[in-house]
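Memo to structure team: turn this sequence into structure tokens by end of day. - J.P.
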Amino acid sequence: MKNIFIISLALMLLAVSCTENTETNKKEKSVTATTEKLAQYQVKFDIEQPRLGLVITRGKSFLLKLNVFKDDRNIDSLQYLVNDNPYLLIGDSINTKNFKAGLNIIVVKAYNSDGSKDIQSTEVKVISDIKPEIKYPKLVKKYPHDVTAYTQGLIYINGFMYEGTGQYRESMLKKIDLSSNELIQSYNLPKEVFGEGIVEHNGKIYQLTWQSHRAFEYDLKTFNLIHEFQYDTEGWGITNYGDNLIMSDGTQNLFILDPESFATIGKLQVYDNVGPINNLNELEWINGKIWANVYLTNTIVIINPETGFVEQKLDLTNFVPDTYANPHDNVLNGIAYDQKANKIYVTGKRWPVLYEINIE
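Reply from structure team:
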């Protein structure tokens, strides 16, 4: 009897095991079949219009046309995104009124009847609908400037001019008496770095370097080095951008930075009515706008900080010292703003003079 019981129990366990294996096999086959079914499909649609590379003037509309492929699925719903923000599509066209300068990414998501989802994207390049007004600043006053200073950054704080200079083995941070050009305080950067733009933010000064991917944070009063940051791009110019900072790298791009970590948290592209403005260099925040030197030119562009479009251009050709009438290296660079007195200062690399200027 004992043997019979053991045999019966074994047969029961075997039957349960076979049942479980059968159910498992069914589930696996079902999953495999579903996967194979999905695998036989390509994407349900692609974007026929606009094609990559479309250049359009802000405010104009472009056609959004999808090419839907035939299979046994239906598209249940579509979602549209412009630069990661939901866009309510009315009809079959998208208006660029609220687009930013430069490349704007259009994403379409399709939710299909079988539970699958397809995503396609394209991009349009938006130029300004406004031709920037060209202005010619007027001279208010001249100040002496150190001809050995390869000016990269310039800021005005409480009666003193702070200057960041470049060149390997020569780069410095300086505090200068504006009226006498007397050096009040200085800090020498490491010999292996090339100093670039500077900005004051919350009682600290930040200074970029050109190709070393290093930025230095100093105490405003003592010039003591507080911290060193790393970043991925070249460093050219830097200024305030609300609670954050914004930096140029010699292209048409401006990078919005977290001042606590120096991490990039956004990007602004700079365009006029023709195309991108490259070689953006020294930056300054003045009356709600970003002013930027355009390297190797006598031009300062005034940029809308929300859109990236250039609203005005300043021609400072008449301020270039005769010595640098045909500049190669010693070019216009350096913009500072006295917010309390509403005064604007400009200079250039190794220029003998710093100017206070005025524009209407």
